[in-house]
Design a protein that fits this description.
4 copies of one chain form a homotetramer.
Chain A (H helix, E strand, L loop, with lengths): L4 H17 L8 E5 L6 E5 L12 E5 L17 H9 L5 E5 L5 H6 L19 E2 L1 H5 L9 H11 L4 E4 L3 E6 L2 H24 L7 H7 L6 H17 L10 H7 L14
Parallel strand pairs in A: 5-6
Antiparallel strand pairs in A: 1-2, 1-4, 2-3, 4-7, 6-7
Helix pairs in contact in A: 1-6, 1-8, 2-5
Chain lengths: 267, 267, 267, 267
Amino acid sequence: MSKTLADVRYELALASRILANEGVLDAFGHVSLRHPADPGRYLLPRSRSPQLVEPSDILEYTLDSEPVGRSTDKLFAERVIHGCIYEARPDVMAVCHHHAAAVLPFCIASMQLVPVFHLGAAVGETIPFWDQRDEFGDTNLLVVKPEEGRSLARALSSHAAVLMTHHGATVVGKDVRELVSRAIYMCQNAQYQLAAHLLGKVAPLSSGETRQAGSINSMPNVIGRTWEYWTMRLDDAGRLPPHGASTSDRARLRTKATPARGRRTRR
Amino acid sequence: MSKTLADVRYELALASRILANEGVLDAFGHVSLRHPADPGRYLLPRSRSPQLVEPSDILEYTLDSEPVGRSTDKLFAERVIHGCIYEARPDVMAVCHHHAAAVLPFCIASMQLVPVFHLGAAVGETIPFWDQRDEFGDTNLLVVKPEEGRSLARALSSHAAVLMTHHGATVVGKDVRELVSRAIYMCQNAQYQLAAHLLGKVAPLSSGETRQAGSINSMPNVIGRTWEYWTMRLDDAGRLPPHGASTSDRARLRTKATPARGRRTRR
Amino acid sequence: MSKTLADVRYELALASRILANEGVLDAFGHVSLRHPADPGRYLLPRSRSPQLVEPSDILEYTLDSEPVGRSTDKLFAERVIHGCIYEARPDVMAVCHHHAAAVLPFCIASMQLVPVFHLGAAVGETIPFWDQRDEFGDTNLLVVKPEEGRSLARALSSHAAVLMTHHGATVVGKDVRELVSRAIYMCQNAQYQLAAHLLGKVAPLSSGETRQAGSINSMPNVIGRTWEYWTMRLDDAGRLPPHGASTSDRARLRTKATPARGRRTRR
Amino acid sequence: MSKTLADVRYELALASRILANEGVLDAFGHVSLRHPADPGRYLLPRSRSPQLVEPSDILEYTLDSEPVGRSTDKLFAERVIHGCIYEARPDVMAVCHHHAAAVLPFCIASMQLVPVFHLGAAVGETIPFWDQRDEFGDTNLLVVKPEEGRSLARALSSHAAVLMTHHGATVVGKDVRELVSRAIYMCQNAQYQLAAHLLGKVAPLSSGETRQAGSINSMPNVIGRTWEYWTMRLDDAGRLPPHGASTSDRARLRTKATPARGRRTRR
């Protein structure tokens, strides 16, 4: 049985809040999903901090990043990032743009981010750089024009992520759970690479290891475990999304995220 | 409709607590606002840690930093920082003095802080240094005499912030929300610059990028989003200011800060 | 009076959650205990994040890492780590495999971890490295085949821990409390060693100091204090394991972990 | 009116918990006070983690570190640190021994800790080192023999603190509040010095600045503010000590620590 649109909206709000709770997103950054029934559209919240996103905040866009149905909501200035990547990459079903503290130093020092541990292999062997200045000169660094979004998508090419000089990163996935895992472990990878750089010489995984370990995060065994863990942590923070979907939908979606039975009611 | 004085007091207590909750202020540091009706006066709490400030703690001062109406409260020793800057800078409506962990290393190593990402551009292209020792010799480093405050204001000049050697920083804004954003992103900028320095060579934004990106934090779209986010985090910490203003005032002021509907009552 | 199996299951769930709460384990990693009545078997949870493990999640395995009694649960892919070490090391009663942030940089830069403070001496004078690639070429870095587990056990040899290149660490103990202490202080030792490396030259403990200080963590005085402390912190996080054991068992087991009498009911 | 012994016990439990809550103490470390009525005795808790200490845990010792009245409690192995310092330093009224993460790197790399910001001046211009190995050869690094305690006290000499190689630090004060401030700001100073070292060249305060700024933490204005702040943070963590003193005593002691009126009951 395929997911209803209400399921997908709930899952997007959950992903948005998980990524904020794990330190990938903060006041800024956004996550989108390609529309489950129409590959020519995508779902993205109205302009709001990701830890506050509710299912009812989620709007529908065409791939040229125009809202479907006239909206009076404030929209993310950088939504072309999503539209242009869905346009260029039919395999991509989920996109996250962020300014995580873990990756910013790499975007400032222009240091290559390389896979340094098995879970970090999710980012692939190469993460390209994109410097808006190269093609557009001095800007305010926001990606707001369609040609800026298309330039970024070209730099991303067939990779899993792209680093944006002086700005942040954009990560893609074949579904929302792969995206969330990849974004989180890319940040951990960056932290470990920086610390290893301070200790001595950074030795990356080999090409073969990167290819083989790159799919660990997609193993059903692993996906179930990480999703339960991140949902538990979000629940502990009192930040699960409100119920925009019907009760039965939610019960089904949250099967894997039941809090431990021994969980205390206070914290 | 202009804000009432009660609104402004509430907003100052909120700003003070947000800056403490985000790690800019701790046991020390203080925020002030120019009096909304009288440019020759300013509002500053009595001597108290910023995360505890209540609207009723807020006193009124003349620009020579004398309290208006005889006060039996303990006052901040360093209030001349505020008075002297309001005197010297008619464009400044809000001032924050702090010892944030993120900037102290720059104040100790005398390393120039430069904008390294788009949101960090809020601090401008140059942040001057001020070393109290240069003009006043050995002191306890507190800025307590009018001539010390005036010297600091001269060093600040027309900039957005000044680093104080072995001491901390003072940041200014054209309103309370610009000040809060600038102080928070200046700290993030410092953290990223230090980490990038460890990774390799720090490349700052160009002058044109700094000028253009410097106003992102003032975009209405962005101000609304960040203010809601920081207020949500303060609320999660159980630290919203008590109600010094009337109920209707508060309802109006907090419109943008309504907690997510799905918010759990426990945490 | 020897512990019942229910006691041991509860203690394993508690250890698992303490190690997660102290930052040794996260979404991944696992702890096992040798079966208290049958040295040819061991106890390990079903595949689940360690902070969520309940006594009822704990399964029994033979030393060739086959579950005892057919199980429909998802199992940890890397359970051979446990079986092969219990096989090779009759003195080992408890095993923890983890990817702690503190040790990963050493696994990436291949920097020797050495005891640098008295509590860190619990890891012993030498921690060997094991690189799966040396014997097995390109893999996904997971230790899933019996021959991989046996190779790791050979590298561990008679030591207290082994660092796994690009992957993490495996730590052993003569009982669950020694294991928990050792795993936690090994991580602290790694953090201090990295920071000391940044400050200047790292001077390790002498051999004699390492030998003598290595048993501090096993002093009854110390074990009681640390166990009470970590349990208090887990309780503060609302994460004590649910009651899988009978009430009287639990009362007995938690004697040392009574929350402070003045503890507030909210947090 | 002088404090009752019950007041002093409560204040010691509070100090112990504040230092744990601020990251100076953890599972280990201890704080003591000289007996308010008898300079030949001191007060120190039974062996327990500092965040759990209650007024009723506090025992009385002679200066040769023997408990007054036969005790069945477990005692701190390192209590001679306290007795020997009270013996050697009549001016000292409070002692803290700790292994804080911030100072350990200096104890490992033997890097001189120097005052680098105004509040850090509380530690004075020079902090001596003591390496137990110099006089006693290989030990387990615990300070348990009277001659070890006396050797440490000689190294401390007339200073405010001493760094213990591969072990931690011991800090003294002329009263409990000076001690708490000094221990906390010594740790902040260490963190800033390490970060400044990474950025460039560390410039310490001048001798004159250190002398003048060294008393900021003792200004009544400042003591009131910091004590209220740390108590508020401890209260937020749900960790205020239980009521061992009478109600009126407590009301008097906590005057400065009333939680903000707007404080929410949940957190």
